[in-house]
Design brief:
Structural class: alpha+beta
Radius of gyration: 26 Å
Number of strands: 12
Largest sheet: 5 strands, mixed
Shape: globular
Strand content: 5-15%
Number of helices: 19
Length: about 500
């Protein structure tokens, strides 16, 4: 039996609100009354699965769930403003609040509060060389996108120059001129920050004066901070060994802080950037088409012992009971069906299940029935002319997505030891699948779809198509070679009696 779980949008919105505002440990049963008050309900096992898969929720062996809001609200971190910030009386958020705030919030959306007043934002033009490093924890591959999404660059389309950034760039900053005067703030001083409201991205700032004593001797606080750096590196090392490269640098840092939260969130802490700048152990390395923190001089492997830590058997149905793609992807395949003026919903099954021929007649008919019901429901709202502006790029996206599903399927069923294949190409493949999923999800966001973003999506998709062609060629060839080697080994072997 193939099971499709579709959560009511109102239920999902309330659960998301709960997750974003709940600061205490909870069980799934704690959410059920919250839903009941709003005359909504959900099956407990479905809720458990949803929470177990949620990127902002962690679970314990004792059956409790914890939110990122709960872990990082009221926790302390620090950073030192750059000289250009002190001279101009501004503060750039950049990556400085990572991983304490909502990873989905853009830097210009974070609100700083000091002396009981929220710092006003203003648009400035900055030298790229000054501000680029303040975004480095997002990874070189994403920095241009953060700049393009900043309201300061609303009239610019970086996709036209293949995201090559200009030397002078617009950036939204926090106006700290009067605050610096009040604090008598000097270059070298530090700001101690604390998350006040995780849901809204409100962060408080306090001044920490740099005690300038003997230039040849460290102050007591400097010594404490050097000790903190060692504690952070120890926690980072343990985290990377246990959890590996994770899905982003942000997730790597979350795992690091959770290794030793009480000793890392202290007033004399340094910033993550300061640790990486002085570290002889760690660096930001290339990981497929993305970036991760890793051990200096070592290649990040595609597979490791950390994969064995992720036993998801209790949270997911058996593999052959899963519909292979999320519900929002199905919606886009149906919209593509309308756009391409195809009639049979059965063609979608062929596009998302590479070995659909082996489905039992019962499973195939159930899938077809579900697709036809969804197709009939969506048909009432579909307008071909309104869809025309995104129809072509959606079609290209889904064609590539189907190819990726086929390649993943071929890898899983090749019988080849994955460890013998190119690790970096495997990493690129997994990242392509993740990127494609995010791209497909963007089609349902009407406020996101405009001419500028469509051009950016097209450029991004073109890059992913090229990456797929290269990755597919390499992995397919390696599979053939491995299969030939296996055939030769088997063909030349003798039976046990002949050994």
């Amino acid at each position: 039996m193939i099971i499709i779980i579709v959560m009511d949008s109102n239920v999902e919105k309330l659960i998301e609100l709960y997750i974003r505002t709940q600061e205490n440990p909870f069980r799934e049963t704690d959410i059920l009354p919250f839903l009941k008050i709003n005359r909504l309900k959900i099956a407990r096992d479905e809720l458990h699965s949803y929470l177990s898969m949620h990127p902002l929720v962690f679970s314990s062996d004792a059956g409790f769930f914890y939110t990122r809001a709960g872990f990082f609200t009221d926790k302390v971190f620090s950073f030192k403003p750059e000289r250009f910030e002190v001279e101009q009386g501004i503060l750039v958020c950049g990556h400085r609040c990572m991983p304490f705030v909502d990873p989905e919030m853009l830097p210009h959306e974070i609100k700083f509060i000091a002396e009981d007043s929220i710092l006003e934002r203003k648009v400035t033009i900055q030298n790229l060389s000054n501000v680029y490093s303040l975004y480095s924890l997002w990874g070189d591959e994403y920095i241009p996108q953060f700049f393009s999404l900043d309201p300061a660059n609303e009239g610019s389309d970086f996709s036209l120059t293949d995201y090559e950034l200009p030397q002078e760039i617009g950036i939204t900053v926090n106006d700290a001129g009067e605050l610096f005067k009040k604090w008598d703030f000097c270059f070298g001083d530090r700001i101690v920050a604390r998350v006040l409201d995780w849901n809204t991205g409100l962060v408080s700032l306090e001044h920490k004066k740099h005690m300038r004593g003997n230039v040849f001797e460290l102050s007591e606080e400097d010594k404490l901070r050097e000790g903190w750096k060692k504690d952070f590196e120890k926690a980072l090392s343990e985290s990377l060994s246990i959890w590996g490269p994770r899905d982003s640098i942000d997730e790597q840092l979350v795992s690091t802080y959770l290794q030793d939260l009480p000793h890392l969130c202290v007033p004399y802490c340094a910033s993550i950037s300061e640790v990486l700048q002085s570290s002889s152990k760690f660096e930001i390395s290339q990981y497929g088409v993305e970036s991760r923190i890793w051990f200096k001089g070592e290649e990040i492997p595609a597979w490791g012992e950390w994969l064995e830590q992720e036993d998801l058997s209790d949270d997911y149905p058996e593999e052959d009971e899963l519909f292979p793609v999320p519900d929002y992807v199905i919606n886009e395949y149906i919209a593509d069906l309308f756009f391409m003026k195809e009639e049979s919903a059965g063609s979608i099954i062929q596009k998302i299940i590479p070995d659909y021929e082996i489905l039992s007649k019962t499973d195939y008919n159930i899938l077809l029935l579900l697709l036809e019901k969804k197709r009939a429901s969506m048909r009432k709202e579909y307008n071909w002319f309104a869809d025309y502006h995104i129809g072509e790029i959606r079609h290209r996206t889904l064609v590539l997505y189907s190819k990726l599903l086929r390649l993943v399927h071929d890898l899983e069923n090749s019988g080849v030891d994955i460890a013998r294949l190119s690790q970096q190409q495997l990493v690129v493949l997994s990242q392509l699948v993740a990127h494609m999923s995010r791209l497909i999800s963007s089609f349902s966001q009407d406020e996101f779809i405009n001419e500028k973003n469509l051009h950016a999506l097209s450029v991004s998709l073109e890059g992913m198509e090229m990456s797929y062609d290269e990755t597919s060629e390499v992995l397919s060839e390696e599979i053939k070679i491995c299969r030939k080697d296996t055939f030769k080994l088997v063909g030349n072997s003798e039976d046990a009696d002949g050994c």
